[in-house]
Specification:
The protein is an alpha/beta fold. The chain is 44% helix and 14% strand. Helix 3 packs across helix 4 and helix 5 crosses helix 6. The radius of gyration is 17 Å and the shape is globular. The C terminus is likely disordered.
């Protein structure tokens, strides 16, 4: 059953751990200078897997966390849809940058935090390549900024789990180089089929 999961801290499923391992194997061939991660477990578990394959220590940043859903963290989506019908409908319009779940973070606040977090990392590393393990919402906000979309447009750029999105960053100017690359996950499927007894 699906839950409203912003800061709701769930660990990776078994399938998620397998995907994280495939991503980590791919990243060991990249010339990475540093590894950053959200401290939420689903990201942190992925970062730990990458650390094993690259030898890079993980630096955790709360600025890389998913949007805060406030008082509704972990609530079943069906319950939220029925008990907070007005909020649900407002969120679905994807037009109000000041929308927030009760006690949570607005989309405008979320975008500002996401951009500041990435800008701080980019400022530390200048021309170096770094890995940032974060959440679909953070990536969506950064790409929304690049494409001048309303912060409430959360659905426009939603990458899949354990995918790679590559962004070039210079003086707060960002360029999308690759989005939602999952080729390493497909390679894992092929390998499992080929090694089936």
């Amino acid at each position: 059953m699906q839950r409203l999961s912003g800061w709701y801290d769930v660990e990776l499923s078994q399938a998620g751990r397998a995907q994280a391992a495939l991503l980590a194997r791919r990243l060991r061939h990249e010339n990475l200078a540093a590894l950053y991660s959200s401290p939420l477990r689903r990201a942190a578990d992925t970062a730990t897997e990458i650390e094993k394959h690259t030898g890079l220590p993980v630096t955790y940043s709360a600025m890389l966390k998913e949007i805060s859903c406030g008082e509704l963290e972990g609530e079943l989506l069906d319950d939220v849809r029925h008990r907070y019908r007005e909020h649900w409908e407002r969120n679905l319009t994807q037009q109000d940058p000041d929308f927030r779940w009760p006690g949570g973070e607005s989309y405008s606040e979320f975008r500002a935090r996401s951009l500041n977090g990435i800008a701080q990392i980019a400022g530390r590393h200048n021309t170096q390549c770094v890995a940032v393990v974060t959440h679909a919402g953070v990536i969506s906000q950064i790409l929304g900024h690049i494409h001048c979309l309303n912060p409430a447009r959360w659905e426009s750029f939603r990458p899949g789990p354990a995918s790679m999105t590559v962004i070039g960053w210079h003086n707060r100017c960002a360029t999308l180089l690759r989005f939602d690359d999952r080729t390493h996950l497909h390679a894992g499927s092929v390998m499992r089929k080929e090694h089936r007894p």
